[in-house]
Amino acid sequence: MDRDEENYYGKHGEPRKFDPKFRGPIHNRRCTDIICCVIFIVVILGYIALGVVAWVHGDPRKVIYPTDSYGQFCGQKNTLNKNKTILFYFNILKCASPVVLINLQCPTTQLCVSKCPDRFATYIDVQASYRYRPDQWNYFRQFCKPGFNNPRKSVAQVLRDEDCPSMIIPSRPFLKRCFPDFSTKNGVLTVANQTTFKDGRGKTRNVTDLREAANGINNVLDARSVGMKIFEDYAISWYWILIGLFIAMMLSLLFLVLLRFTAGVLFWIFIFGVIGIIGYGIWHCYWEYDHLKGIPGSDLTVYDIGFQTDFKVYLQLRQTWLAFMIILCGVEVIIILMLIFLRNRIRIAIALLKEGSRAIGYIMSTLFYPIVTFLLIAICISYWAVTAVFLATSGEPVYKVMANQTLCKYANLTCDPETFNTTNVTKLCPGAQCTFAFYGGESLYHKYIFIFQLANAFVFLWLVNFAIALGQCTLAGAFASYYWAYRKPADIPLWPLFSSFGRAIRYHTGSLAFGALILAVVQLIRVILEYLDHKLKGTQNSFTRFLLCCLKCCFWCLEKFLKFINRNAYIMIAIYGKNFCTSAKEAFFLLMRNVVRVAVLDKVTDFLLFLGKILVAGGVGVLAFFFFTRRIPVFAQEVPMLNYYWVPLLTVIIGSYLVAHGFFSVYAMCVDTLFLCFCEDLERNDGSTAKPYFMSASLHRILGKKKLSPKKA
């Protein structure tokens, strides 16, 4: 008997303290990690309070509607801008790209207008002709500041005070903002079929001066057009997409059922296939090595020819093929030796996979539990997003001095628009204006907005990890009930999934919250590191870049390790009902005593489940491709007319993969739970009548134990 199979004794040789009457998940439990449970409940209540406060102070219209230079919403009811729903920029040449226009403040006056300009015009031309062409002035002044109606004011003063734009350009509304109406004619960029325009300052400009903005805008507009077509495709093909996802669900179920019979076959076919491919590689390397014998220059060494950018040069050397052959021989020998020495553990892993398929067959309700986890996570994401938006829009309008002169010492300083004209700023910085900059504030609440956003993100991560932990603990409890049933399926308790869910919520909320808290802290640190890396990307030196890279790598590894520990700790919590730290410690040492089995089982499970996901997604994807491209004659008339057939096709493929991942995640949890129970069974029992094994007969035969004691009715 192997040491890791019957390690019944503790660290100092004393017998481990087991309950001889243990028969699976303990039902007589106590609440664990009560302090963390209380803290978790208080945090949730505080999170709700934060959402309420954000809802009271926030205004999502600040995100939805554009804001003019006076901090007023365009299109806001019961205001002067009620019928002015579009934002107009006095000089769009000052704005680099649409991204700047949407997310930042462009250094030019912005007004709410009812419609965008539909013609070229300059203030100079309109002023010169307003006496005999008043209609032109009446049209132009709707793009001037409200109340301005003084065409006699000198052009220099108007442009200095930005009472009116120096020019208007044919534009069209997009994202409720006026963008130049760009188009191409014979490959030439134009605006209203013109390639030049007057800028209103005595210069004739080429449309290419707006190339940077034009390219960005056209890309966004093209994306909008494509987006509308994609929406139309979804609208007429959603029914067939659902059918494809249903087929994926049935194939996933079928694959899990067939694993009971084909897990070993699939694995050994893959292994012997790899051995055969490597064997062919060895033969091919020898053939190339022998074929180059006697060819001039083939006996040179890699050192002789030095570094070459053309890899084909090395393939003309016998030494290269000899090295390849030696490497492949080494890999082949390692694989064969691993199969020889690990054959028993591989058989155990395959048997556990088959046992997992059998367990899911008895507790089919577990396959649909991921829907509960998905709904909980969706609620968390929705609440976090809404709270983040309300927090981001909680500020009051903040105005700053916008100066045309770069040396103005008052530039970017806060100002009051009501008293700005009475200050000396306009005299010292001609043309300076007090315009709306962003939303903020000086109150205690506004000063801590960033802290509230961090708290919002942290609690969101905590809740998401808790939802995942609840799902893992619930599934573990259900599958542990199956393993520790002496007579399967007769001794499996009624409604094991619902019973396990109730135990997890009633007794172990604190333990699950504790594990989720540790993981959330690490994830928040990773988010902060990514944020710092993004912010310092342009200014950091080599040492800072290296340090950030090391920290990001370390915390990534730490997160992966904690997820592994938490997952197995939740299994032990589901079985024994102990607190998080004790469960994590016992799970870790139990796995370390069976570390080789852990590695083998993990890789075998990963391979088979990945193969299943590829088979499901690939099979449904091929079927969807033939269907949406009308290559199935029987259904050719049923296929809807699509703009892009790849839209429903990709949706079906990705959706099928996610459906398979959801089902197989349950299967992976089942195998992990059965493995821990199996290890506990080996250490706890010896197969005697007093301490019989709870493992299946197939596992018992693989271990070569003495005959199972008869199971009493």
From TrEMBL:
UniProt GO cellular component terms: plasma membrane
Keywords, comma-separated and alphabetical: Antiport, Cell membrane, Glycoprotein, Membrane, Transmembrane, Transmembrane helix, Transport
Molecular function as annotated in GO: antiporter activity
Transmembrane segments: 31-56, 238-258, 265-283, 321-342, 362-386, 459-486, 507-529, 607-628, 649-669
Membrane-related topology note: Multi-pass membrane protein
Catalyzed reactions: choline(out) + n H(+)(in) = choline(in) + n H(+)(out)
Taxonomic superkingdom: Eukaryota
Pfam family membership, one: Choline_transpo
InterPro entries xrefs: Choline_transptr-like
Sequence similarity: Belongs to the CTL (choline transporter-like) family.
Function description: Choline transporter.
Record's protein name: Choline transporter-like protein
Organism, as annotated: Oriolus oriolus
Gene that encodes the chain: Slc44a5
